Amino acid sequence: MASLLQFCPADARCTGDSAGDVMATSWQPTTLVQCISVKPWLTYPGCDEPGGCHDLTLGRIYEMLGVEANGSFYRILDDSGDDFLYPASHFKAV
Q1: Which of 28, 40, 51, 80 would bridge 55 by S-S if both were Cys, CB 3.0 to 4.6 A apart?
Q2: What is the DSSP letter of 1?
Q3: How many Cα atoms occupy the beta-carbon half-sphere of 58 within 13 Å?
Q4: pTM for this one?
Q5: Is residue 66 within 8 Å of 74, Cβ to Cβ?
Q6: Distance (Å, whole) CA 9 – CA 61
Q7: Is 36 in contact with 28 (CB distance < 8 Å)?
Q8: Every domain of the chain and the residues it spans
Q9: Cα distance between residue 55 and residue 25, in whole Å
Q10: Of the candidates 68, 74, 70, which has an alpha carbon nearest to the alpha carbon of residue 31?
Q11: CATH 2.30.30.40 fits 31-93, yes or no
Q12: Residue 63 forms beta bridges with which residues?
């Protein structure tokens, strides 16, 4: 006998049928932001090249993974495939 797939809200308790437990899934929305500046923002003494935005593409839409430092920085999954902190002023919500 085939079992049915059952979806339950994240805040509800799901019970399985007699064949076994049913797996509950939850979904979280993704926040997307568009890069509006690639102006270097990170400088330190002795550095010839200011940095901080090497792995961003102007106009590209990125996935924002989190907000940090009271909203001053966004954790962005950038062109390198890794997540880094970038100034919130470099992005606009899509």
Answers
A1: 80
A2: -
A3: 4
A4: 0.63
A5: yes
A6: 30
A7: no
A8: 31-93
A9: 33
A10: 74
A11: yes
A12: 32, 77
